[in-house]
Amino acid sequence: MKNDLTPKERMAIPRQSMPEQPAEVRNKNFEEVPLGYPEETAVKEAQRCLQCKKPKCVEGCPVNVKIPEFINKIAEGDFDAAQEILLETNSLPAVCGRVCPQETQCEELCVLGKKGEAVAIGRLERFAADTARNKSCGSESTKKAVSKPSPDAPKIAIVGSGPSGLTCASDLLKAGYNVTIFEALHEPGGVLVYGIPEFRLPKSIVKTEINQLIVRGAKLETNSVIGRLYTIDELLEDEGFFAVFVGTGAGAPRFLNIPGENLNGVYSSNEFLTRVNLMKAYKKDAETPIMHGKNVAVFGAGNTAMDSARTALRIGAEEVHIMYRRSRKEMPARIEEIHHAEEEGVKLELLVNPIEFKGDENGWLTSVICQKMELGEPDDSGRRRPVPIEGSEFETPIDVAIIAVGTESNPLIRQTTPDLPMNKWGYIEADDNGVTGKKGVFAGGDIVTGAATVIEAMGAGKKAAEKIIEFIEG
Ligand code: FAD
Ligand code: SF4
């Protein structure tokens, strides 16, 4: 199929919408919400791309995916070639096509967005990756094509199996090194499996991507907490690893530090989502119980808050309120996530701040007391500071509270590797290429930047892999 439309013809094609489950159906199940482009729609959307000579979209992508090239292949109907181009720079395209904030990255810079609507780059990335995955499922050809590293090649340890660790592992395998991934939890994938819910990112997709790494020769050690099983020094000195990449994320929850936070029924979003995503706590026969609240309040307004609220609805809550101390404009979640949450029945209560949780005589949460806020001058983050309105306190009955006000680094690596330089917030100090102040130790992703995005963590894993190769070969 030729992709030879004139620019005028391309610009006349409207941005193609993606079918999704209706809100009143999907808010009761864990199936994926958007259903993906059918082939014909994907080709039509791909034909909108102007194939710019100097593509701005690529500058917006932290791993510099060759966007016009892969889109051109979709427009030509050569979907395998589209996936090959994606894999050159992005080892997790099916993940990124689903969860990357394209509207503030590649799509924000797309020239078509200046006068109309940007090319749906994320949806096309998802289409190419899904088509290739569905086609290769069970196919022997993929298994035959891979070459594993030689047993004598240097060994590299990857600590943490989130997107930064997986990407670093993938690039090191490509370069012919032996890679062992140590993961503290019983399932690999980091936030991709324990944080982002099934209805946004099916776990089978993450599993397929990780299986590919194993087929290519990566060793995976789950239930292996570095800092307990081995320290980083032991990996380097006793276990024969030439270098260590630390991609342990920022998974320790922050709390509100207000009275009543220890009551039964108050969860951190991290605990709530992990119980549901990883332990399947919503199933009747689950070994890890979770409270199925009727009136749920979620505090915070990022993606984690949206995921928690939408999950609470799906496990049977009658009312779910997101309580946020600033206004809608300052909400950090992706617009699409806020839109989906509201469509599904989540209610936003803006400019309110919790000051106390109340409970009954048995220690169970019964209500929250909040104070109304107004916006003052911008703070360090550039967002307008919320200021309490005196005398505006009010009480709302709730039986589950989920606190989604951010995360910080886990202290274990810090405590067991005293000569690894950290900043004052407990994150590892590393340069833009993942080089730390400790010889042989590299780091990237949320453990360096604090909570960020999947693609940024992947970009960090990629750069660190290059530096590890330089370090070993040098
Ligand atoms: P992580 O994904 O956190 O992985 C770190 C891994 O290291 C974990 O598996 C952990 O168990 C393991 N680990 C920790 N300590 C040790 C140890 N001592 N030994 C061995 N293993 C260890 N980003 C987006 O781009 N789009 C989204 O839609 C989005 N939604 C999100 C929703 C939620 C609920 C959350 C929490 C985050 C979301 N993010 C999103 C952010 C994104 O997921 C993270 O920025 C990204 O996963 C960071 O990757 P990472 O590799 O640095 O760490
Ligand atoms: Fe295509 Fe937009 Fe990128 Fe130009 S900027 S190549 S139109 S996706």
Structural features:
474 residues, alpha/beta, Fumarate Reductase Iron-sulfur Protein, Chain B, domain 2, FAD/NAD(P)-binding domain, 3 domains, five-stranded parallel β-sheet, 37% helix, globular, binds flavin-adenine dinucleotide, binds iron/sulfur cluster
Task: Summarize the helices and strands and which ones pair or pack.
Elements lengths: L6 H5 L11 H4 L12 H9 L8 H4 L7 H9 L3 H11 L3 H7 L6 H4 L2 H4 L5 H16 L3 H6 L9 E5 L3 H12 L3 E5 L8 H4 L8 H13 L3 E3 L10 H6 L5 E4 L5 E2 L12 E3 H9 L17 E5 L3 H12 L4 E6 L10 H10 L2 E4 L1 E8 L5 E14 L5 E5 L5 E4 L2 E4 L3 E2 L3 H5 L24 E3 L2 H4 L4 H20 L1
Parallel strand pairs: 1-2, 1-4, 2-3, 4-16, 6-14, 7-8, 7-14, 8-9
Antiparallel strand pairs: 5-15, 10-11, 11-12, 11-13
Helix pairs in contact: 3-5, 3-10, 5-6, 5-10, 6-10, 7-10, 12-21, 16-17, 17-18
The chain binds flavin-adenine dinucleotide and iron/sulfur cluster.
Flavin-adenine dinucleotide binds next to helix 12, helix 17, helix 19, helix 20 and helix 21.
What does this 3D model show about the protein?
This protein is an alpha/beta fold and 474 residues long. It has three domains: 7-143, Alpha-helical ferredoxin (Fumarate Reductase Iron-sulfur Protein, Chain B, domain 2, Orthogonal Bundle); 155-250 and 413-473, 3-Layer(bba) Sandwich (FAD/NAD(P)-binding domain); 253-407, 3-Layer(bba) Sandwich (FAD/NAD(P)-binding domain), CATH 3.50.50. 37% of the residues lie in helices and 16% in strands. It has helices spanning 7-11, 23-26, 39-47, 56-59, 67-75, 79-89, 93-99, 106-109, 112-115, 121-136, 140-145, 163-174, 191-194, 203-215, 232-237, 269-277, 303-314, 335-344, 412-416, 446-449, 454-473, and strands spanning 155-159, 178-182, 219-221, 243-246, 252-253, 266-268, 295-299, 319-324, 347-350, 352-359, 365-378, 384-388, 394-397, 400-403, 407-408, 441-443. Strands 3-2-1-4-16 form a five-stranded parallel sheet. It has a five-stranded parallel sheet with strand order 6-14-7-8-9. Strands 10, 11, 12 and 13 form a four-stranded antiparallel sheet that branches. α3 (39-47) crosses α5, α5 (67-75) packs across α10 (121-136) and α12 packs parallel to α21. It is globular, with a radius of gyration of 23 Å.
